[in-house]
Design brief:
8 helices
Length: about 190
C-alpha cells in the first residue's frame, strides 16, 4: 500500500446518512476478485440515469466535486453487508480519505486494510464541511501524524485513531506487509521447529 501521512485534496460532499455498501457498490458489480476496476461503479445507481448518462442531480457529479479525493458523508457510512468491495471502489475512484460522524464497524476497519483513512469528526464539524463544499471546490489537509483536519480558511478539527492503524497507514503496510517485516524471525523459528 502507498503510505499516507498527509493528504491535501478537494472534498466531495455526499450529504446522506446510512449509506450502505449496496449503494456504494451494487451487487451486480461484485464478480471481480482483484481490487481494481471498481471505481467506475461507485454509487452507480445514484451517479447514472437508467439510460447510462450521468445523473446531473447527484452530488458527486457536480463539477466542483468530480476531482474530490476526500469524501465527506453523513453518519453510519458503510453500513449493510460486509463486502470489502466497498472500500475497493472508493479507493479506485480516487478517494484517500472519508470523513463522517460515524461508520459501520466492518467498513471502518476495511478502509484501513485497504489504504483509506476513515476520519470520525463531530457532527457539527462534518456539517460545517458539507456547507463549505456543497456548491464550490473546497480543499482540506488531513494530517494523520498530527491527527488534524485543516483548511486555509481556518477550519480546524482533531480526530482519534487507534495507534495500530495509524502506524499501518503511515508506513503503507497491510497486514501481510506487517507480517513480512518479521520474515527473518519467522524463518528462524520455523527452522528451530524441524
Amino acid at each position: 500500500m502507498e503510505p499516507l501521512k498527509t493528504h491535501t485534496g478537494t472534498i466531495a460532499v455526499l450529504d446522506r446518512v446510512n449509506v450502505d455498501t449496496d449503494q456504494i457498490i451494487p451487487k451486480q458489480f461484485l464478480k471481480r476478485v482483484e481490487r481494481t476496476g471498481f471505481g467506475q461503479f461507485l454509487f452507480f445507481d445514484w451517479r447514472f440515469l437508467p439510460n447510462g448518462e450521468d445523473n446531473p442531480d447527484f452530488e458527486l457529479n457536480q463539477p466542483h466535486a468530480k476531482q474530490g479525493t476526500i469524501l465527506v458523508a453523513g453518519h453510519n457510512f458503510g453500513c449493510g453487508s460486509s463486502r470489502e468491495h466497498a472500500p475497493w471502489a472508493i479507493k479506485d475512484y480516487g478517494f484517500r480519505v472519508v470523513i463522517a460522524p460515524s461508520f459501520a464497524d466492518i467498513f471502518y476497519n476495511n478502509c484501513f486494510k485497504n489504504g483509506i483513512l476513515p476520519v470520525k469528526l463531530k457532527q457539527e464539524e462534518v456539517t460545517a464541511l458539507m456547507e463549505k463544499g456543497k456548491d464550490t471546490a473546497y480543499s482540506l489537509t488531513v494530517n494523520l501524524e498530527a491527527q488534524t483536519v485543516t483548511s486555509e480558511d481556518g477550519f480546524e478539527a482533531t480526530f482519534e485513531i487507534d495507534g495500530y492503524w495509524k502506524e499501518m497507514l503511515i508506513n503503507g503496510w497491510d497486514e501481510i506487509g506487517l507480517t513480512l517485516r518479521y520474515e527473518e524471525q519467522i524463518k528462524q523459528f520455523e527452522a528451530s521447529r524441524v
